[in-house]
Each structure stands twice: as C-alpha cells, then as structure tokens.
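Hi support team,

I'm opening this ticket because the web form for multi-chain structure prediction keeps timing out on my end. I have pasted the exact lines I submitted so you can reproduce it. The total is 261 residues across two entries, so I didn't expect it to be a heavy job. Is there a limit I'm missing, or should I split the entries? Thanks in advance, R.K.
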Amino acid sequence: MTTPIEKVSIVISKGSLEEIYPGLIMANGARAEGMEANLFFTFFGLDAVHKKRIDHIKVATVGNPGLHIPTWAGGLPGVSSLMTKYMEHQIEELDIPGIPEFVEMISDTGAGLYGCLASVDLFGIAREDLIDQVDDIITVGEFYEMAAGGQIIFT
Amino acid sequence: MPTQQIAGVAVEVNDEGFFVDAEQWTEEMATPLAEQWGVPVPLTDKHWQVLRFMRSEYFEKGTGPTVRKLGKTSGVTVKELYQLFPKGPAKLAAGCAGIPKPRGCV
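Hello R.K., no limit was hit. The queue was backed up. Here is the completed structure from your submission:
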C-alpha cells in the first residue's frame, strides 16, 4: 500500500483569479482529507491576502491562451472585468465561495496562512495591510522548515 | 467487497472502510465507527447533529455534503467541524454515519 500524504505546503505566487483558486482548492481539499496544509503567498500571490486587493482579483485576459480570445481583444478596456464577472458567476453556480470567503474558510479549517518576507519587503507591504487570518510573515528558510516532511506544491 | 463486524453486525464496506449500503447503519454503530476512524469519543450532541445531517443529505441527494456545505448548512461552523472531526469532517462524519465518502472538490 502506498503511504498517504500527511502534509502539503502550497505556494501561491501569482495574483490572477485563475492562478489563485487552484492553490486554494488544493489547500482546502488537503484539510478535508485530514492532511496538514500551509499556504505561502509570495509575489503577486500576496494579493489573495491583501486587505485592499482581495476583493478585486481579476482573470488575466492578456497572454492567456486558455481563454481562446485574441490577445488584442483581451486588452480592450473592460474585458478583464467582464471575464472576471463571468467566471465569478460560474464559480458561484458551483457553490464555490468567492476568494475572500474561501481564504477565511481555509483559515478556519486550521490551515496555516503565511506571507513571504521578501515579497512583503519588495512591495512595501506592512502586516496591517494583510488580512487578519495571515498567521505570520516568514522567510523562505522558515517556509522550508515548516514544509519539512511533506509535499511542496508551487502554483 | 469486504465485510466488517460493527457493533456485532456484519456490514459491507468498501476498500477505504466506507459503508456500501447506508441502510445497514444503526445508531449503535456510531461510537465504534468513531473509534475506528479516529474521531474523539464520547460523541457529543454536536457530533450527532453532524451525523444526522450527513445522513439526511445523503438520502435526499444521493451524496454526502462536503465540508463547505456542512459549514454553510448544518448549523456547525467550519472551525467547530474541525474540532469535532480533526482529520477531515466530511470524510470522518461520513465514515461514522455509515454513508459513502462525499465527492466534491470544495
């Protein structure tokens, strides 16, 4: 029999809706399976735990071939907002929570939420700029210590 | 399908240990099942609230609720659910309530 996974540490490094959700779903799913789960938000991924930005996460409509719209059309004013509204609607239909509610729920499941120190410094973000559910701002070394013995997933 | 003795009754379970036929479950089985699934016993009223909700949802919809659904509709918050069933509320509650493992990503 294969050994079950006991712990996952998931890195969310990008700030678009389609790059934040997968990490959140994987963290939530890990907790649902009884695994320990940590989320590490780095670079633009920090938007997912940033008080002022968490409500305004958008779908990337430029340079996103998966959307199957021409790149020039993706750059037109309002297209990103429109596509975001559309996807948010689809997500709601499936009864998947919006990002702010989802992040709060994941924290309630007991998963750890961490900001990346280098990124926080780079963007000039203070602890107070991040939502209360963030447990700590940590270094990459501390992240690896925390992840020891488990799997690391980079998104 | 393997069978297992629970509270003196032979029950059909799948490879993961979930009931194949939810009708085979009786309330006397909840505590032995909880011990088997690593749920802290004795079971409290809140545990029972979740177990009953799991079963009613299963019989109504054909699948048990996910943690998100439980947190939204069972009257027990997500935080409490993880205190009651630390190693995964929907999965463990399904195990104790004698229903198949709920399927759903969120």
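A quick check on our side: Chain B has one domain: 3-97. Let us know if the file doesn't open in your viewer.
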